[in-house]
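the four lines:
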Amino acid sequence: MMIKAGIIGSTGYAGAELVRLLLAHPEVEIAWYGSRSYVDKKYASVYQNFFKLVDAKCMDDNMEELADSVDVIFTATPQGLCASLVNDDILSKVKIIDLSADFRLKDVNVYEKWYGIKHAAPQYIDEAVYGLCEINREDIRKTRILANPGCYTTCSILTTIPLVREFVIDANSLIIDAKSGTSGAGRGAKVNNLFCEVNESIKAYGVATHRHTPEIEEQLSYACGQDVLINFTPHLVPMNRGILVTAYANLNENVTYEDVKAIYEKYYGDEYFIRLLDKDVCPETRWVEGSNFVDIGFKIDERTGRIIMMGALDNLVKGAAGQAVQNMNLMFGFKENLGLELVPVFP
Amino acid sequence: MMIKAGIIGSTGYAGAELVRLLLAHPEVEIAWYGSRSYVDKKYASVYQNFFKLVDAKCMDDNMEELADSVDVIFTATPQGLCASLVNDDILSKVKIIDLSADFRLKDVNVYEKWYGIKHAAPQYIDEAVYGLCEINREDIRKTRILANPGCYTTCSILTTIPLVREFVIDANSLIIDAKSGTSGAGRGAKVNNLFCEVNESIKAYGVATHRHTPEIEEQLSYACGQDVLINFTPHLVPMNRGILVTAYANLNENVTYEDVKAIYEKYYGDEYFIRLLDKDVCPETRWVEGSNFVDIGFKIDERTGRIIMMGALDNLVKGAAGQAVQNMNLMFGFKENLGLELVPVFP
Amino acid sequence: MMIKAGIIGSTGYAGAELVRLLLAHPEVEIAWYGSRSYVDKKYASVYQNFFKLVDAKCMDDNMEELADSVDVIFTATPQGLCASLVNDDILSKVKIIDLSADFRLKDVNVYEKWYGIKHAAPQYIDEAVYGLCEINREDIRKTRILANPGCYTTCSILTTIPLVREFVIDANSLIIDAKSGTSGAGRGAKVNNLFCEVNESIKAYGVATHRHTPEIEEQLSYACGQDVLINFTPHLVPMNRGILVTAYANLNENVTYEDVKAIYEKYYGDEYFIRLLDKDVCPETRWVEGSNFVDIGFKIDERTGRIIMMGALDNLVKGAAGQAVQNMNLMFGFKENLGLELVPVFP
Amino acid sequence: MMIKAGIIGSTGYAGAELVRLLLAHPEVEIAWYGSRSYVDKKYASVYQNFFKLVDAKCMDDNMEELADSVDVIFTATPQGLCASLVNDDILSKVKIIDLSADFRLKDVNVYEKWYGIKHAAPQYIDEAVYGLCEINREDIRKTRILANPGCYTTCSILTTIPLVREFVIDANSLIIDAKSGTSGAGRGAKVNNLFCEVNESIKAYGVATHRHTPEIEEQLSYACGQDVLINFTPHLVPMNRGILVTAYANLNENVTYEDVKAIYEKYYGDEYFIRLLDKDVCPETRWVEGSNFVDIGFKIDERTGRIIMMGALDNLVKGAAGQAVQNMNLMFGFKENLGLELVPVFP
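prediction for all of em together
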């Protein structure tokens, strides 16, 4: 069974990565390269890596028309757009995988507070499934509207959630210090993202205000059954791809390396996309680049009674397009890692 | 038909790229991860990107033993090694694809002069086929010993050879200014290749003495039937992958853009791995990264009567491991681009 | 004697580098930080490196007012602006150092053809002095309007001109392959200059059409007394600063390394800012970063009868702001290297 | 008064930075370029940035001989060397500024435990002064043996100590997540520090075991009069220079932005080298590169009751050589910022 996919926002970095992955997917044909900014321009002239591989031109954001011609729509657009376009008619015809934040948060007030915009379609929030496959696999299979998690969020949650769920750590003591490659900042023409401004520097940004914070908190709250407040600080790193999360938390009890390892194994031992590293091996973003893997390691600090959990992923793959395809695979009954058995590219 | 492959020198960058490509190849199983420096060490602990994907340990360089157990041996080793190991018995059992320079040059004196070592097996030079698929396809299919071209060489020859063959340019006026990412310098622990030494800098090296020079000259000489002497200057660029060649030559006659384009089309119009860019589009290494493509463009400068030809490839793929796999496909009767339909990874 | 300087265009990269250099100059006080885009904004909030060092706010481009209050005006602006503002009254009050291309070319037709704009003040072209200090030192001392050379131009001319002047090489055979760091592309918010677009890539641009070509040709023509046409190809390199020029030319006669070295010594032996490297040492941009030095080396290729000349400088210092200060020193009778004895910063 | 300086370990990155700074210092002459690995080699051939600026050859590590000929010795060597060379006779003749860890920790057991070597000269530990100028200024003026702080340590302590001292934060809740450029890893030829291994990646290392941890703890313990245990995690960033510290701590009481700002002002308001950033401005390493500044900012997170303190410095300047020169200035009665009024270099 071959399905047809449409991409709204195909000329952002996440959209282009979707194109890369779907071109190599044996069961999908891309039928619509949406990009409001480049309508009628050859897609391969915007992303020359697709020269000779994609012949199509960019199309407008017409979700109605798209719904009639494809099986799945990916929206890789700024927050607000997907919610403003979706409606009952569309949802009756097509499945939607939204890479924006519109349907990630269950509490519309939290959404409106952190994003500073009014939610245009709150009636679909309940129905939408949060697409962290390793956590919500069964619900994902059944949904027609999928909220693809944020890049920082995916890395933060997957790195910490087993220990939150098992009450090994005090979730409210969690401090997540995250570092991202620059593709996470998008392809907008901003001085701050120019080569010379990013190269040879590192900085924190969005300190105590970054929008992925409530998304992490909400999922961790579900995991432990109580409200969780954390600190989350993103940093911009002079590299193209990759997110590294270094998470600190107080241990609730005395645990050994083996205890903690066993918990991670319990949750992730059978997960294809999560690689639990050997003792004393720290994740590095270079080892996951281009792939859908998340590498996870940890270290107990007996001196301070804390644990340091670390996770690495490729922000454009497992942090965006790859996870979207993984979700698509679940939603359409394909093998979960179909088209995603990507070997990380190094160096 | 599934074949077995052995890699000698699997822990260099080219060797590791071979592993990446062969893991994704539907007709090959890697049976031997050779690496003298890491014998008995888990391969995936040397290249952590293969964690959970490769379980094997590194083996010694035993070509005799290897010849009994595999169908094809790749030698991704420094010059001299392959020539010192190969013999009639081995060649009767297995096909060899040598990524080093040992069998690239037909004139053993030229080899010994530029490489400064004695050739250990000159008796196989004649039999060896120079593995530039787009040029020597038919001979490659039949050989049992394949000399995989150098990275700079592949880019330089493919970019210029149609115009040399058709006498559009004066081959002896050729000046090739090449720029390479740092993986071309190998994984040896040298101060000059440390991050801080390479980053934020560019330099020429091996000026007028680089060993890829005679390799380019020999192939271009065959193409035009006369001895060719060129200038070739490599440069080290602060990036991981990629080679860009900017080649200058005097035009022999008045030609238009269309004339030249037609010649390129004649030679490469049907080649899957060569992408002739549109008018006024210059190749950029980012658009071929991770793939086996060569992107080629050119510009006629009427003021000076010269043409500037430009080519870009990924030095580890089309410049090394990808071309080796392309050669293997030809040698074993597989579809030429099997396992090599890699979409370039950007950013 | 302390002089006052005004900078028009102080928030571009060259303008900011002028600020860095002038702050450390013992005889200059910056009295005007011009920047049309940031009027009334604190200069140090645009370039946070000057926090606590510069308290001033950005001012408009009012050259009339500026002429009444300072001794020298630097225009670090796009071509066309300086020519449109300058007039007799201003020139009677103040000296102008123009970092744009407006007064570099003596032939106004060449200017208008390559830049595609009408020259607004051709009457001052004759009076303007081309500010390559090592070539035009005496004229520079006397002028009131100084055309500061382009970055590529400075590197290209200084690297090749002694051999052109002495007819050691055939100037019309010159092929200049230049590589520049990304600060040369300016601070404009363009997608092409985003971190992810530049990083991990190299490309040629402006092939056969770059505007520094006629500037190089004009100066080399003066040097050898005949019209010179060359090929000049710039490349964008993923680093912040630095230009490397690799120049190829046919030798007119048999010369030895010592012959050529003697010619370079004749012209540059006493120049503080030009460092003639030892035999077989190639210039690298990392060794000049942050300084006003130009490092020059060369290699004779007896096989092809050509010479490869190489030069490296920091495009923002000797290629722009440093050279401007060197010119200022000459124009105001200061020691030529005052405030410019900068030790290159490595790594 | 001109003094003479000798450098032991002048060919490491910190040693070379000392050379850069001392060459520009008006009161110092470098009399000895020590480097065991490069004895008799021209210093400028090891660091080509000093070509034409330094004519000297590298000398051996003879501290006895050195003590007779210079006023101050800088040891920029691995831990253990300085302690093994120093003795009463030497200390009677010369002042020593040790950039290694030998005299930083007052408790010799802590030193021997974390560094895994026996301390060769524990008798001088008490006399040695910890050279964090902003904290220990008066003691530094009087000492003859100075322990120059570590790079991470300098940044970590200066960023947090005012709030520790004033009990605004719970020192034992401190979590310091630090990010460093690669020059911090030294110039040793190791595979892990090759360009291709560091570029396009980020990783934590030395998790819960890094040797700067006890150094930070000791100084913070002095500040608050009680034992302090913290978490400190360093990360390797693909850039040459720069350290960014992101420090998290629980607030002991309700404080406002103004309260905290006032405390920082109290301690640092008059410090030339510490720049307290404006509200909501986060430090970025690019803004301090090449200078001796430390930029500090902070953000209160009312949701979690924590504060996030951030500091940035250049690891080779304020984190090593610059601080050493600042200490030297104090020890010899020079103006504290003599030779150190370096404007940060951007981009």
